[in-house]
Amino acid sequence: MSAPNEGGRCRFNYVVTAHKPTVVTHSAVGRFTSSEETDLIVAKCTRLEIYRLSSSGLRPIMDVPIYGRVATMSLCGGRERGSKGRLFITTERYGFTALSYDEESEELKTEAFGDVRDNIGRPAENGQIGIVDEDCRSIGLQLYDGLFKVIPCDEKGKVKEAFNIRLEELRVEDIQFLHGTAKPTIAVLYRDMKEAVHIKTYEIGVREKEFVSSPWAQNDLEGGSSKIIPVPAPVGGVVVLGEETIVYLNKTSDDTDVFLKAINIPERSSIVCYGAIDPDGSRYLLGDHDGTLYLLVLVHDGKRVNELKIERLGETSIPSTVSYLDNGVVFVGSAYGDSQLIKLHSEKTNVDKDGNLSYIQILEEFTNLGPIVDFAFVDLERHGQGQVVTCSGAYKDGSLRVVRNGIGIDEQAVIQLPGVKGLFSLRDDDESQVDKYLVVTFINETRILGFVGDEGDTLDETEISGFNAEAQTLCCGNMLGNMFVQVTHAGARLVSCDGKLLDEWKPAGGSEILSAKCNPTQILIAESGGKLHCLSAMKGKLALVASATFEDEIACLDCTPMGEATSSPVCAVGLWSMEIVLASMSDLSVIKRESTGEDIIPRSTLLCSFESIPYLLVGLGDGQLITYLLDEKSGELSVRKKLSLGTKPITLQTFKSHATNVHSVFAASDRPTVIFSNNKKLIYSNVNVQEVLHVCPFSSAAFPDALALAGEEDLTIGGIDDIQKLHIRTIPLGGQPRRIAHQPETNTFAVVVEHLWSKSSQDCFVRLVDDGSFETLSQFQLEDQELTSSLTSCTFAGDSTTYYVVGTGIALETEDEPSRGRILVFKVDDDQLVLVSEKEVRGAVYNLNAFKGKLLAGINSKLELFKWTPREDEVHELVSECSHHGQIVTFAVKTRGDWILVGDLMKSMSLLLYKPEEGAIDEVARDFNANWMTAVAMLDDDETYLGAENSLNLFTVSRNVNAVTDEERSRLEITGEYHLGELVNAFAPGSLVMSLRDGESLSVPTLLFGTANGVIGVLASLPKDVYEFTERLQASINKHIQGVGGLKHADWRSFVHTLRGRSDPAMNFVDGDLVESFLDLRPEQADAIAADMKLDRTDIISRVEELQRLTH
User: Fold this and answer.
1) Would you state the CATH architecture of domain 1022-1111?
2) How would you classify the pairing of strands 1069-1071 and 13-19?
3) What is the tens place of the pLDDT at every residue in 1047-1070?
4) Could you write out the DSSP letters of every residue in 311-364?
5) How does DSSP classify residue 995?
6) I want to staple 1014 with a disulfide (CB 3.0 to 4.6 A). Which of 254, 369, 868, 892 is the partner?
7) Which family does it belong to (predicted)?
8) Is 3.40.30.10 the CATH number for 420-661?
9) Residue pLDDT, tens place only, 666-712
10) For the structural domain made of 733-885, what CATH number should be given?
11) Which 8-state DSSP code applies to residue 1067?
């Protein structure tokens, strides 16, 4: 896997998801996976997740990808215990599928699927509507204005041939099936040409394939009415939700006119979703656009509604869906904030975040990154471990999210304890499987923490009487025979497990001991002058086994046994001469002497075994790690590899997970790392904690499989994750973040935040945020109706100060496009934002880029370059140097060198060149297709460019520099096309995985992107041979594994553009999510694919895991 990209071009791209979509679009409750248990089914745009409510919260049952964007989802049946329902889904590309759950195979089963698109028709203005008759007699779809599609179902629920019925009402707000009707009957809420809202019912004649009658209708409902709630039989009828009023409507055989009951909503509100509580339709939960949850009660006598009541329950995230589960527990799905699991109480016993009493208790929150409007890729610790800080959410649920990849530490105890020089754990006897004592040593003392109390589960300071507490402990451990050993600068002490001093050994002449290591039967001691001693501990006595003297001082040593052994035949010694010596523990004779090849002293050595392969690891004083393969018999070292883990000395410590019985190594440094092996390859994973100086395993009854970690100021005890994953930190803003930029020089972020107080009132602020604590340091308020559309951090030629530059536009209701805007230049002075310059411009500043010591701004249809020019009063101002016209809206701009890539709102991409000698910007090439761009990126220096557009596609274009004619050279040719199914708002080069320069791994340039559904994706440019392997694997998986609901992967990833009127197969892009799904297949499925590819299954797994490790 080492061939370079053909021609150096990034034409072969691998698209994979690092963080799955988290925006909840639909939810349903019912018996689906079991006839006895109630499930929650959640759609997150392109994924389907199924949960079951348990005493500890929501328990995941399954999580599957859907080859399409879920447009409608309905669960039919399963209301009665003993029966299971079926799930009906349509996608935005007009795919239809009916799903059931097979309990035996624990998989989704496709009952029916098909394409429900029509050749003619305008897509429904308010989006698709999909509904199912309560008795599963018919499925109704409103996909196009003026058409209602009916899919009849037989008594067994099998779908029959669909047909269309002409719908006179063109501007439909909502459609629902009525309950308790002899024939399938729908209620249509619609708006006429004069903006008046009416409701009308139609009875569907399945045999006649048309509407056969209209039982009742009601004109002139409230103008803000938008949703229908069908009320179950025997009461029947509908509830219509407006902005100011809620109306119940029905007409029975006893009524001459439509029966109507109404109630005012306490506060004018836009109800966006509802959820039924009772099967008889007595109570409903209503969620509005501000995140307020209401309870609507229909007071009825079993036949007729007598009264409507409404009460405000409290605040939640802004909901997109509300589903009542059981016992007062409700799922609130959100597209703008975190989804929540809440519990409703009968009294106002809880206090919300605004200090108001509420009926709502939040049980659990589910992180949602969407919509990601912008993000910054940063390395806050300056260690090469990238983090993404996203502008997430909307309205009151807006926040910053700090996303970091790595292994997490679940902190179970934190003690303020500065100055720790070493950590050691002790069991209370040979038979014990858990640790009882934690020995913490300092420069001149040793303190012991132990489990005390009647239950033995309280960690407190204690003592072991045989230990020397007045000295620094260099090494401490359990010895076979129920003994402890403690080594200090003065000597070694052998102590019984009940605290009695059994024996003591001191070096001759009172020489100082510099370092020591031990295992259950051996003690290795280094004293000054390069002297090395090996001691044994047997029958309560310390015995000198062997001694040796080296020409150089000893810097570090190790005698860790391999695997489960209690002794080691060899030891590894690091010398000040930058050499590593392997010596026999029996006589300390030199087996092997190896130069590290570095001029940095080794600070830690470790003998260890991964997957039964012996290794020698050497940590250097500058944060570099050297690994060798070790031949235990001959002592030969081979396959030397070097990589940089951090910048400070490394301390190496083995630990073992008792749950998985896997040995790993913790490399403590300023960039803590866990080292483990997978498929005979060492894997390095960042640990999401700050600098760790010392570490030891501390697995006790109270803290199973835990580690003790010492930093500069504190001691942490915590469990460690078994797997590497994304860790997300939330910083609530109370408003919607629009743009973000990082400034390493001042350790700050600038964030643009909008606060929407009402439909006509909003404020916009530029906030200065500390990049460590994320506290707001200061903020600058913009003018009325001034909105920020761009933000960057930059330096100007001739000025060493780093500035934040903000671009704005004045949004007036009388203008289609802003005619005025400003460019504001700020500097950070004493943690304050100080405005140093402002420039009025004619239009909105859609983007800003630092460019050649100047500022490049996209202003409406113009691209303008500004110089930073000093004035006579010693202040600077922005002065226009040159500009380029030719866009409709200069929406997205990226630069590299003298090249400028422009993404236009409607006219795809164009490539410009800045000519400094002429002071001009000229167009070099353009893509002549009409694409409405949302983001652009440069994949390599001057040849391949990436674009994302509003039909949710990605595509690459290349410049044909070798073309013969000027016309060909001026054309950007399409070289790759792919349907992502996500609206991309931003691209940025970077990687969420550790960057290891070990000289062995494939070099894969990666680009991150953020989407409206909360996806963080990775686009990796692959060498041609690797790309061809992934393309073959993708094709073979599609050949053998069917998509959920019969939806086809090739159709889903095909490039579809609204202006083309056709779909084209994906080209030069491969779906990394599908490729990596190979790792989760059953063995028989994987074997069939491997046979099809004529490759070994383990080889495919190894190559896919390598790609996974390199990309996310």
Assistant:
1) Orthogonal Bundle (1.10)
2) parallel
3) 999 999 999 876 666 788 999 999
4) EEEEE-SPEEEEEEEETTEEEEEESSS-EEEEEE-SS--EE-TTS-EESEEEEE
5) -
6) 369
7) Belongs to the DDB1 family.
8) no
9) 999 888 888 888 777 788 888 878 788 999 998 887 778 888 999 88
10) 2.130.10.10
11) B
